[in-house]
Amino acid sequence: MAKDGKGMAWSDFNDMSVKDGKLFWDGKEVATKQIVSLRWIELILATVVAISALVTAVWPIALQFGWFGIKAAGA
Predict the structure, then answer these.
(1) What is the pTM of this model?
(2) Number of CB atoms found within 10 A of residue 24's CB
C-alpha cells in the first residue's frame, strides 16, 4: 500500500456504485482504463517478441505433423 493511502474495510464498498457500465466511488467516476502508447522502437520490439512466441509455440506442432515439408527427428 502506498504511504499516503489508507486501507479499505468491507463497509467502504457501500460508497461504490455502477451506472451505465461505469464505476463510481463516492459519487465520482473511477478511471478504469488507460491508453498505452508505445514508441516506434517499442512497437517493433513487441511485434518481434509476439511473432517469436507464436513461432516457438507452433514449431513443435509443425514438426510433429510434417507441415512445411519438415519432419521431426526419429519420425
Answers:
(1) 0.46
(2) 14
Q: What is the SS3 assignment for the chain?
A: CCCCCCCCCHHHHHHEEEECCEEEECCEECCCCCCCCCCHHHHHHHHHHHHHHHHHHHHHHHHHHCHHHCCCCCC
In sequence order, which residues have a C-beta less than 8 Å from that of residue 63 and are 6 or more positions away? 70, 71, 72, 75
**Cα–Cα distance measured from residue 24 to residue 68, given in angstroms and rounded to the nearest whole number:** 54
Quick: pLDDT tens for 50-71: 999 999 999 988 888 888 887 7
Which residue type occupies 17? S
